[in-house]
Specification:
The complex is a heterodimer. Chain A is of the alpha/beta class. Chain A has a domain at 7-124 and 225-244: Thiolase/Chalcone synthase (Peroxisomal Thiolase, Chain A, domain 1). In chain A, 36% of the residues lie in helices and 16% in strands. Chain A has a five-stranded mixed sheet with strand order 1-7-4-2-3. In chain A, strands 8-11-10-9 form a four-stranded mixed sheet. In chain A, strands 5-6 form a two-stranded antiparallel sheet. The radius of gyration of chain A is 20 Å and the shape is globular. Chain B contains 19 helices and eleven strands. Chain B is an alpha/beta fold. Chain B has an eight-stranded mixed sheet, sandwiched between helices. A three-stranded antiparallel sheet of chain B has the order 9-10-11. The chains are: A alpha/beta, B alpha/beta.
């Protein structure tokens, strides 16, 4: 159990529909809009923020820009001198930034931390972008010279499921259908106006071509520009802030538990390692169970909903059994029984997830935790999970390489 | 009466608005009958819809037919009959007469007309038709642009208006704006005033200069004349001429802004309609951009135009680029010089015209804001006033010789006009 708590006071997400290159915007505009938006929503002055952490995957490649922590100083004159840093763990960058910020709060170094996940990806075409994403794998061995390496890697995850337990495509299609459906209810989701249904997801034609083995276009998350920012606080500050805003401390969500593990980069190594194991990605399973243990929960039974890393439908399929919603290899049961639907027992990706809401790589971890915050504070609007008090995330970098889970809830 | 929409009949399925709207209805999981003059044309409409939303599956609940063979049976059990035939009162009347004959009593009849009078379209038909008829104006392309106008006539059942408002919001992710049945409704009334001013300015200066001065940096995704090229000169003409012909005399302080210059009329007569006929104010020849030299009627390379280096414009562009929209628009309002004044007159005119129409074409300024933001992708007038500041806005209007709207005169300082939870940053393009 966590003795010292990290509270979440709120946050802000940019509209993931936007194409910031079409707007001819610099990454700085995303910082400015996201952090200003957060300060307005949380009702906090810039002077109150003690430290800032940035999660970002590859601005060096997409935007020719590094040193991302330092851009905070340009948001507001009050941020000059602010301690800042940037964290990178591929698609898990945002969660790693949250871990770093919460560790500092728990260590008593700071009381108020701003965590910004940010990525601008539409600066380049799909092939070049696909190649940049390949650097989240072991580039030389898995991605160099491969067109769209990641769909292929996650296609292989599907193949591995098929080999060990059997896998029907219609279950993947239903995952896609649910995520797109949920995204229609989310006013910041990238695909909210797109056409999608189960029949489309089940088709294989020019509009829904196979891009990596079993993985078709409808199984893929999106290329997205966007930012999601959180404001984290110590108990001391949260108490003061609650009083100021006529709230009870007990109504403010906090990070109840976390898990964080790293597997070898190569997907073949992962499969080799797990060949006698019931879970295909055992380190991901450990990430989940660690988070539950730290939250004082036996299993997913205490969780009201999950925001998981559906970079592809196969990764959500993997998340279902790794969260323990079914026995290993039986994820399909939770899909068929409606467990993961928005009105199900444990809805997955009420926000639409990476497939529906979008996947600005470095912002996904912070976006997931922000959506959990919205669920447990009853502020998720049309995609609200009724009565949600405890939510979990799973954020993955690479082909299941770095994994982070947070349990976010109120008492 | 509990209304539902399960079956829809689409009239004019092969037109741009027809198939675009058809795809929206199919997305909402309704059975849709695509009708056109021939079944082949209806088929072509379906194929266009499938291409637009990139899915063959959009056609799974679509049936096809022609007016002659299938109108009666399709209209008979439709919950909604959606009309998207040519923008011509006589053509619409003719088809509505047939619809009125065959429709079931409570079915909804909606027109996608972008400006014809909804009352006039209704008045020749049965009382039941009148009560269940209204305008449902999607903007093109409807799968991308979510702003949508809902226009009741004086005969329309108010419950129907509320029902469709809710239905389109929920099932089609629309941002619905209720407007009065006045020429051009809200979006086109306000939008084409600005666009036609650009057409008028283009005669005096040139198209490159006008799009440079009133370009994206002033709060829009696309410069005005490039927008008209996309919309089509014929559509532009229909909208502005309709406003001039049908607005009550003396009720519009900016009516002169809607008068289309003779040069554009001549271009239309010659068949030049914009991008769809291969060239409008701009065209590309072997990928090289050319502009229309209005005096000579010739296309000349854009590179020949020497644009003035405007410090204020560059400063605003740089501020937008890093997300400092407030400073950017304050810089705009305070800029001095003849070029700045031209741009300020257009933007100031847009603000004043909008605030003068609030309560008239829409219930409040928010309706105009939302249709300009979500229909045109322009910074809503309220957003501009909030960013520039009330006092600075009034000062800018004064300098432009534009009368300050009462709503602004009586406004409380520091109280924002715009409170909708959307990213306003998207309207300010750094170009």
């Amino acid at each position: 159990m966590n003795q010292v708590k990290t509270y979440i006071l709120g946050g802000y997400q940019t509209d993931f529909v936007r194409n910031w290159s079409k707007e001819n915007k610099h990454l700085m505009a995303m910082y400015q809009e996201a952090v200003d938006g957060m300060m307005k929503e949380v009702k906090i002055d810039p002077e109150e923020i003690d430290v800032a952490h940035v999660g970002n995957f590859a601005a060096e490649l997409y935007c020719n820009q590094g040193h991302l922590g330092a851009f905070f100083t340009h948001i507001n004159p009050a941020f000059r001198g602010l301690p800042t840093s940037r964290h990178e763990a591929a698609c898990a960058s945002g969660s790693i930034a949250i871990l770093a910020a919460s560790a500092e709060i728990e260590a008593g170094r700071y009381d108020v931390a701003c965590v910004l996940g940010v990525e601008q990806m539409k600066t380049v075409g799909p092939k070049e972008g696909g190649d940049y994403l390949g650097t989240a794998a072991w580039y030389e061995l898995e991605a160099e010279g491969v067109e769209f390496p990641f769909p292929k890697l996650f296609g292989k995850l599907g193949d591995e499921y098929d080999k060990r337990y059997g896998l029907k495509y219609e279950h993947l299609a239903e995952i896609s259908n649910i995520n797109y459906g949920n995204a229609r209810l989310n006013p910041n989701a990238q695909t909210r106006t797109w056409f999608m249904n189960k029949q489309h997801a089940c088709m294989q034609d020019d509009n829904n071509a196979a891009v990596g083995g079993i993985v078709r276009i409808s199984d893929c998350s999106q290329v997205t520009d966007g930012a999601a920012v959180l404001l984290l606080a110590s108990e001391k500050y949260a108490t003061e802030w609650a009083k100021r805003n006529n709230k009870q401390l007990s109504d403010i969500p906090y990070i109840k538990g976390w898990g964080h593990h790293t597997s070898p980069l190569l997907l073949t190594d992962k499969f080799e390692e797990s060949k006698n194991h019931e879970f295909i990605l055992p380190h991901v399973r450990s990430t989940v169970t660690d988070a539950f243990k730290r939250a004082g929960m036996a299993d997913a039974g205490s969780i009201d909903g999950i925001e998981t890393h559906d970079c592809f439908t196969t990764s959500e399929y993997m998340a279902i059994d790794h969260f323990g919603l079914t026995k290993p290899g039986e994820s399909w049961k939770a899909i068929e029984e409606g467990v993961i639907a928005l009105d199900g027992k444990c809805p997955i990706n009420a926000s639409g997830g990476l497939i529906g809401a979008g996947h600005p790589v470095g912002a996904t971890g912070t976006r997931q935790v922000l959506d959990c915050f919205r669920q447990v504070t009853g502020t998720a609007g049309d995609y609200q999970i009724q009565g949600a008090r405890n939510m979990a995330t799973l954020n993955i970098g690479g082909s299941g390489t770095t994994s982070v889970t947070f349990v976010v809830g109120v008492d | 009466m509990a209304r539902t929409i399960k079956k829809i009949t689409l009239l004019g399925a092969n037109g741009t608005m027809g198939y675009g709207s058809g795809a929206l209805f199919a997305r909402a999981d309704c059975e849709v009958t695509f009708l056109a003059r021939t079944k082949e044309k209806a088929q072509a409409g379906l194929e266009s819809a499938q291409a637009q939303v990139r899915s063959v599956a959009v056609g799974n609940k679509v049936t096809l037919g022609s007016y002659d063979d299938d109108l009666e049976s399709a209209v008979k059990d439709a919950d909604l009959i959606f009309e998207a035939v040519a923008e011509d009162m006589a053509i619409k009347d003719e088809i509505f007469t047939k619809v009125d004959k065959y429709r079931k009593p409570d079915s909804i009849v909606a027109t996608v007309s972008s400006g014809l009078s909804i009352s006039k379209l209704a008045e020749k038909h049965s009382d039941s038709f009148k009560k269940n008829f209204l305008g449902l104006h999607y903007f093109n392309p409807p799968n991308v642009i979510v702003g949508t106008e809902l226009i009741p006539s004086e005969y329309t059942d108010p419950e129907l208006v509320d029902f469709l408002d809710e239905w389109c919001t929920r099932n089609q992710n629309r941002v619905m704006v209720k407007t009065a049945n006045s020429p051009g409704f809200a979006g086109n009334r306000v939008g084409f005033k600005v666009l036609n001013e650009a057409v008028q300015l283009a005669e005096k200066f040139n198209p490159v200069y006008v799009d440079y001065l009133v370009g994206p940096y002033t709060g829009r995704a696309m410069p005005p004349l490039a927008t008209i090229d996309l919309v089509g000169f014929d559509v532009h003409q229909a909208i502005v001429d309709n406003v001039v012909a049908n607005v009550q005399t003396g009720s519009d302080e900016a009516i002169e802004s809607f008068r289309m210059p003779a040069y554009m009329r001549q271009l239309i007569e010659k068949g030049a309609l914009g991008r769809k006929t291969g060239g409008g104010f701009f065209k590309r020849i072997d990928r090289v951009p050319f502009y229309l030299d209005i005096g000579s009627g010739e296309y000349r390379p854009v590179s020949e135009v020497k644009l003035p280096q405007l410090i204020f414009r560059e400063k605003i562009r740089q501020l937008h680029r890093i997300g400092r929209y407030c400073e950017a628009m304050q810089t705009f309002a305070a800029a001095e010089g003849e070029e700045a004044l031209i741009a300020q007159k257009v933007i100031g005119g847009y603000i004043a015209y909008s605030f003068n129409r609030a309560g008239d074409i829409t219930e409040t300024i928010t309706g105009i804001d939302m249709i300009m933001g979500m229909g045109f992708n322009w910074a809503p007038p309220s957003v501009l006033v909030d960013l520039i500041g009330l006092e600075n806005t009034c000062r800018m209007l004064d300098r432009c010789g534009i009368e300050i709207p009462l709503l602004l005169q009586n406004a409380e300082p520091d109280k924002p006009f715009f409170n909708e939870p959307i990213n306003i940053g998207k309207f300010f393009v750094a170009r």
